[in-house]
Amino acid sequence: MLVIGIAGGSGSGKTTVVKAITEKLNKKVVVIPQDCYYRDLSNLTDAEKRSHNFDHPDAIEWDLLCSQLKDLKAGKAIDQPIYSFISCGRLKDTQRVEPADVIIIEGILIFTCEELRDQMDIKIFVDADDDDRLMRVMARDIAERGKDVHWVIERYSRTVKPMYLQFIEPSKRYADIIIPQGGHNKVAIDIISATIEKSLKGQQ
Q1: Gap between the Cα atoms of 135 and 108, Å rounded
Q2: Which long-range contacts (CB under 8 A, 24 or more apart) does 173-177 make?
């Protein structure tokens, strides 16, 4: 089993990289999104939800994420939380996740948690220009999360960019591999996929 962490700022192309790597591997792959582990905010008012900082490490329930990753590494299935960005809360239902040859942990803040980092075999940071990231964040939040343009721009200025500079960009130093141009860097993805395959063969 190989545990891979893929981090990077919002809109950097992490999901594209995850998809590209998964498609190239001839192994069973499970993806664990950091977003599933946001703390439940369903008890807050709309105003409180609007002002909540989703880009600070405290927004994530790290204990649960680390515990469930340990279970997967031990060969145990987990009941992964399902988070709704519409209601800013966890759904009652969970998703059953079985252990796999490759486990990919994906999220903006995953390298800020030492306990989680220590469970990773390979750490990858997806880099992208600020302007490109902002455009992707706007498109995603409007299309998938029911937000308007003003909300996205206000949130980007208030939390996304400052938290990127304070927590996410500095966590790049923990990465074994940095991918510039995000998911469009086919050379980097080919090299990473080959490295993963080689590492898995070495475990056999």
Answers
A1: 17
A2: 174/111, 174/117, 174/123, 174/125, 175/7, 175/111, 175/123, 175/124, 175/125, 176/122, 176/123, 176/124, 177/122, 177/123, 177/124, 177/125
Residues 203/30, Cβ–Cβ less than 8 Å: no
Q: Which residue has the tokens 């074994």?
A: 176
pTM of the model: 0.88
CB neighbours (10 Å) of residue 196? Answer: 22
Tens-digit pLDDT profile for residues 61-107: 999 999 999 999 999 999 999 999 888 899 999 999 999 999 999 99
The single-letter code of the amino acid at 64 is: L
Burial of 46 per CB tally in 10 Å (0-12, 13-18, 19+) = exposed
Q: What's the residue count for the chain?
A: 204
